[in-house]
Amino acid sequence: MSDSTPKKTRKPSPTKEIKVFDTWCKRCGLCVAFCPKQVYDRDESGKPIPVRLEDCIACRQCELRCPDFAIMVITEDN
Ligand code: SF4
Ligand code: SF4
After folding, report:
1. Residue 74: beta bridge partners?
2. For residue 28, with 0-12 CB atoms within 10 Å meaning exposed, 13-18 middle and 19 or more buried, which class applies?
3. What's the rounded mean pLDDT across residues 42-50?
4. Which spans in the chain are helix H?
């Protein structure tokens, strides 16, 4: 019997939300610089604001590069 089911590929789920924890964020801008999709703008204090969430590919570079663990990328997987 042949298996016609398409092979599952490990693709990140769509991003539902990005949380930036205000009190932990020191406004260094690393997350903004490393985001390959320019998802973030910055407010007047320098805090990153995920204004183009629909462009996010859930690569988590922002989360991984943040030295203060101030970002959480929430997808349908977590
Ligand atoms: S997960 Fe990737 S694409 Fe999405 S905001 Fe972070 S760095 Fe940008
Ligand atoms: S990398 Fe972290 S500390 Fe730096 S601006 Fe982004 S959220 Fe704030």
Report:
1. 17
2. middle
3. 98
4. 30-34, 61-65
Neighbouring CB atoms inside 10 A of 32's CB total 20
Q: What is the CATH number of the domain that holds 55?
A: 3.30.70.20
Instruction: State phi, psi for 69 to the nearest 5 degrees.
Output: 50, 40
Ligand nearest to the CA of 62: 1
- What residues form DSSP beta bridges with 49? 41
Query: What residues are in contact with ligand 1 under a 6 Å CB criterion?
Result: 15, 18, 35-37, 39, 56-62, 73
Range of the domain at 68: 15-75
Decide if 5 is inside a domain. Answer: no
pLDDT in tens, 54-65: 999 999 999 999
